[in-house]
Write a structure and sequence with these properties.
This protein has eight helices and 18 strands. It has 396 residues and is α+β, with helices and mostly antiparallel strands.
């Protein structure tokens, strides 16, 4: 077998060197890739709005890691470390999303942009110290209005005493409680108990006493007017007198310093009902005037005319009287009604009633006429009214 030449041996050595160089290059690339992988891969603790997770992430910066985890960040959100900061292995990334909340401080509302998670965090951001909050400081910040009440002085006037109360109460009700003011069921307060307690507010407490009482009252009667076609127009006759009703009322009286300011009725009892006063009102048209008849001097009719005029009635009234007593007795002193017992010129029933006008009532026409005119005046008002009644009912 022939030996290789020098040229052949040289070519073989170069081929071996190229193979070794290629292997070295491959090894370098592998080592380099492994190092880069090790640099980009890391374990990170991710805290998003209080929810903490441990993730295996790839990326050089905080922004890379958040993007890889599909965590979006908007303007106003808080990210620690910043989005451009390099992330180290075992690092912690905190994300707090910003939002608008409504805060009411001593009754005045304002909108605040915050990334706080709890009520305490908001108080720290607002730098409100010593305030009383409507929710626990450790409570998660919700969507409801957060009410804060700072320290203030409220002046409480209770009777003759005035007390200055230093309080952080949010309402008047709470401030009165801290002042030791106990309200009765009927006591009054100058402002609403649910009104905000503000610095310098003056609250006046009025003590109201409730006293149960009873009293008797009257219910006035009413007057009822009834038309009566049997009476002459313009004349009135009382058919029945009215009577007031009586009732007893039991009530609760609310008093301030002994002065009643209101009451609530408890019970009512009617002791007697009111009775109407009934008045009959004449609607009959006055008949045409009757001519005054000729009167013979010295007769009962002549006496009647004279006494009628003496009472202030005119001759027209005597004309009615003449018709009435002509019908009743014919002006006879001794006219007697055997069936009824009526007697005399005016037909008094019984005749003895005329004794009130004189002892000679049985024989004296003047005595009988005086009594008869008095009866007509008291019962009907005028002779014409009496004559109208007689025409309607056939008696007077």
């Amino acid at each position: 077998m022939p030996l290789p030449t020098t040229s052949a041996r040289t070519a073989g050595r170069w081929s071996e060197r190229a193979r070794l160089a290629a292997q070295a290059l491959v090894l370098a690339l592998v080592v380099s890739g492994t190092s880069a992988f090790a640099v980009l891969h890391k374990t990170v603790t991710l805290d998003v709005d209080g929810t903490t997770t441990t993730v295996s992430a790839f990326g050089r910066t905080v922004g890379d890691v958040l993007a890889a985890q599909d965590v979006t960040v908007a303007e106003g959100d808080l990210v620690v470390p910043g989005l451009g900061e390099t992330v180290a292995d075992d690092a912690e990334i905190v994300v707090r999303r910003g939002r608008e909340v409504v805060v009411e401080i001593d009754g005045e509302r304002q909108s605040v942009w915050t990334t706080a998670l709890t009520v305490g965090d908001v108080l720290a951001e607002l730098d409100v110290r010593g305030a009383r909050a409507s929710a626990s400081r450790s409570a998660t910040l919700g969507r409801d209005v957060l009410r804060l009440s700072t320290a203030k002085t409220v002046h409480v006037v209770d009777g003759e005493s005035t007390t200055a109360v230093l309080t952080s109460a949010s309402t008047v009700r709470e401030a009165l409680g801290e002042a030791g003011v106990v309200l009765g069921p009927h006591d009054r307060v100058s402002v609403s108990l649910d009104a905000p307690a503000v610095d310098g507010l003056m609250v006046v407490v009025t003590r109201v006493a409730a006293v149960t009482r009873s009293e008797t009252t009257t219910q006035p009667f009413e007057t009822v007017r009834e038309e009566d076609p049997r009476l002459l127009e313009g004349s009135e006759v009382v058919r029945s007198e009215g009577r007031d009703g009586v009732r007893t009322v039991t009530f609760v009286a609310y008093e301030v310093g002994g002065v009643e300011v209101g009451r609530d009725m408890l019970a009512e009892m009617v002791l007697s009902e009111a009775s109407d006063r009934v008045v009959r009102v004449g609607t009959m048209t006055m008949p045409d005037p009757v001519a005054v008849p000729a009167v013979e001097p010295g007769t009962a009719r002549a006496i009647g005319l004279a006494m009628t005029l003496e009472r202030g009635w005119g001759e027209d009234q005597f004309a009615c009287l003449d018709q009435l007593w002509t019908k009743e007795s014919g002006w006879r002193v001794n006219a007697a009604n055997a069936s009824s017992g009526a007697y005399g010129i005016p037909q008094s029933l019984p005749g003895s009633k005329m004794a009130s006008a004189g002892a000679d009532w049985q024989t004296n026409p003047a005595t009988q006429i005086a009594w008869g005119l008095g009866y007509i005046g008291g019962r009907y008002g005028t002779p014409c009214d009496a004559w109208a009644h007689s025409q309607a009912r056939n008696w007077y």
